Structures are given as structure tokens and as C-alpha cells.
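Sequence in, structure out. Go.
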Amino acid sequence: MEIKEIENLAKLCRIELSDNEKKELLGEMDSILDFVNQIQKVVVSPATRRGGGKESIGQLKNIMRNDESPHESGQYTDAILAMAPKTEEGYFKVKKIL
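Output:
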């Protein structure tokens, strides 16, 4: 990667960079691209991509127990809403935060 490419990226991002920032970013981008190249060189077998086989890693597993005796939906709604400072149409009413 070259300074010219950094300048083009900055233009696309609509940001201004000083010469020092461009040089610093050039070094960081080279490191990032080297890391991406390392990742691309990793050989992944078809069994790993599908999540099967002994080589697979990171399989998702539900660690939550099954809810064996769930309560009726809405059973506690009125009691909970009664404790809230403000409610509106069955919901908690809170300040708008932006």
C-alpha cells in the first residue's frame, strides 16, 4: 500500500489527514493487510466448514436448561407494572434518551 492509496481512502471517508497521520496509517494498514494474508493462508477442510468432523472448533451449544414449568404468560405483568413509577398502555414509560 502507498500514501496515494491512503489519500484515496481518506477522500472516500471524507476525512482530512496530515502527512504524519498518513504515514502512521500506512504502517497500520500494512499490518492489517499482513494479518489478513495470514488468515487467507489457513487451510480449512470441508468438514470444518460444515461444522462436522473432529477438526471442527467453536460449535455452538445451548447451555441453558429447558424451562420445565413455565408460568402463564402475563401472570406477573400487572404486579410488575404496579411497581413502576410511570406506565402507559401496559408498558413502562421512561424518558427519551438520545
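Check: The chain is about 45% helix and 5% strand. The longest strand covers residues 87-88.
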